[in-house]
Design goal:
The protein has 465 residues and is an alpha/beta fold. It has three domains: 59 residues, no CATH class; 271 residues, P-loop containing nucleotide triphosphate hydrolases (Rossmann fold), CATH 3.40.50.300; 54 residues. The strands form three sheets. Strands 3, 4, 5, 6, 7, 8, 9, 10, 11 and 12 form a ten-stranded mixed sheet that branches. A three-stranded antiparallel sheet has the order 13-14-15, covered by helices on one side. Helix 3 crosses helix 12, helix 4 crosses helix 5 and helix 6 packs parallel to helix 9. The protein is globular. It starts with a helix and ends in a 25-residue tail after the last helix.
Length: 465
């Protein structure tokens, strides 16, 4: 086992780019952009959106895909003073139909990000958006943020509605592109396959919006099958694929959106319900267009009516929700309180033990956030610059080793005086004799000088191994 450890340590020391990790290191170095609501954490199976992972949100028209994207991106771009992550969001609006009012309404709770850290890119084709991300934004990150302390989020809205430069040219010159001319899966295939290489160590994620369509079942009388735009490459690359469906309220001022994980690489499939409000009866223009997801209530529902077995959940956190959406939880000493108050109590430091038990029971993995990632990058940079030789890599033989002073303190018999010859700090007696012969032309084992008194321990006679 010692030989294997020495061998692995040697490989890792030469691995300046950090491509080699043990399973323990891989497990301990899981980083993500923290999610702010328990329902979101449950849906993604972790306390944060994992770095360098693709996420996909698909659904039929009007299923609140874009508002969900705006909300997730807004939290990342919001300042730390307002509870955000202090990052930068890049929204590639590829359908030419974004509603500035809707975008502003969803983001209003995140403060002043609309003036600075939340950017929209328009009038781009799909390859133009990918090129802007890979060639303009990412290459300059390390220079601007050498501490790797500013997270980035890229949203593509949407893959299905994006244009292509070749298709635009074909239409403008010939009037039609033909049925098979535009190959969207082609662009997404190479983007998904190669994105990890140009992302590098940048703390970033990519979220794609896809249109979800139904096609005939492959079996007679079977249910229709769902298909997303952008090709099957996303099925292999995406860490999470979320499918959205909805029911519109009779009042017309909101929807109940159901989010399901149709594919995940990190946990089992899950489902949550979240209410999407449209306050069309506000007192002023801003209130009249205030749209938002009720994430706190969704968090309470994850515990009051989980999509999987209850079991011991009631012993950990017994949550009840009234018809008026008021929450009761005896373990938190709460009775008929708003959902926001419940979620604030759930995340309070004094209830950390209960929260950990819920994470364990509902299989929500605790991963490290941005502060830990900054420290990780600091260590990684230091290790890359470390040139200290690993003892396991030093050339050794079974031959007797001698002190460096025995080689350089006195000239070998018959040798000409001159500039001292550089000697390897770890050299065998056999190699020493070979060098002596090359210098004198006729060296022998008896010509190796004896140790001087001045070379003894305490006077420069430290043994070189």
């Amino acid at each position: 086992m010692a030989l294997i450890t020495s061998f692995v340590e040697g490989l890792k020391q030469r691995d300046k780019s950090g491509v080699i990790t043990t399973i323990k290191e891989l497990y301990e170095n899981q980083f993500g952009l923290p999610l702010q609501h328990y329902a979101q954490q449950y849906l993604f199976g972790a306390t944060g959106l994992r770095l360098k992972v693709f996420h996909s949100i698909s659904g039929p028209p009007q299923s609140c895909k874009s508002p969900l994207l705006f909300d997730l991106m807004g939290h990342i771009a919001a300042s730390k003073e307002t509870g955000g992550l202090g990052g930068v969001a890049f929204l590639y609006e590829l359908e030419d139909k974004i509603s500035p009012t809707l975008l502003k309404s969803v983001l209003r709770k995140y403060g002043a990000i609309m003036d600075s850290s939340f950017l929209t890119m328009r009038n781009l084709t799909i390859e133009g958006a990918i090129g802007h991300m890979a060639a303009q934004v990412i290459p300059g990150y390390g220079k601007e943020f050498p501490k790797f302390d500013v997270p980035l989020v890229f949203g593509l809205d949407s893959i299905g509605g994006a244009a292509s430069a070749d298709t635009v040219k074909k239409i403008t010159t010939e009037g039609s592109a033909g049925k098979s001319y535009y190959d969207k899966p082609h662009f997404m295939k190479y983007f998904c396959e190669n994105a990890g290489q140009f992302m590098g160590d940048i703390p970033m994620i990519v979220i794609c919006i896809n249109q979800e369509k139904e096609q005939a079942s492959s079996t007679p009388y079977g249910p229709p099958q769902k298909k997303i735009t952008g090709g099957v490459s996303q099925l292999f690359k995406d860490g999470h694929m979320i499918s959205a469906t909805y029911k519109t309220w009779a009042s017309g001022d909101g929807k109940t959106v159901t989010l399901r994980t149709t594919k995940t690489s990190f946990c089992d499939a899950r489902k949550i319900e979240v209410k999407f409000h449209w306050n069309k009866y506000g007192q002023d223009a801003d209130d009249a267009y205030h749209t938002y997801f009720d994430w706190a209530l969704a968090s309470a529902k994850c515990l009051a009516d989980p999509d999987k077995g209850v079991g011991e959940l009631r012993d950990i956190c017994d949550v009840k929700i009234s018809d008026r959406d008021l929450v009761t939880c005896p373990q938190l000493n709460l009775k008929s309180v708003p959902a926001e108050e419940f979620e604030a109590a759930l995340f309070a430091p004094e209830n950390a033990e209960m929260l950990d038990r819920l994470y364990t029971y509902q299989k929500i993995e605790k991963i490290k956030g941005m502060d830990e990632y900054v420290e990780y990058m600091k260590r990684k940079k230091a290790e890359a610059k470390d040139t200290t030789p690993n003892p396991s890599l030093v050339k050794t033989t079974k031959a007797k080793t001698v002190k460096k002073s025995e080689v350089s303190a006195k000239p070998v018999k018959g040798a000409k005086l001159g500039k001292a010859r550089k000697v390897d700090n770890s050299i065998s007696l056999e190699e020493l004799m070979k060098q002596a012969k090359e210098t004198n032309g006729a060296g022998s084992e008896s010509e190796v000088p004896a140790e001087r008194e001045s070379d003894k321990e305490g006077e420069g006679g430290t043994k070189v191994e």
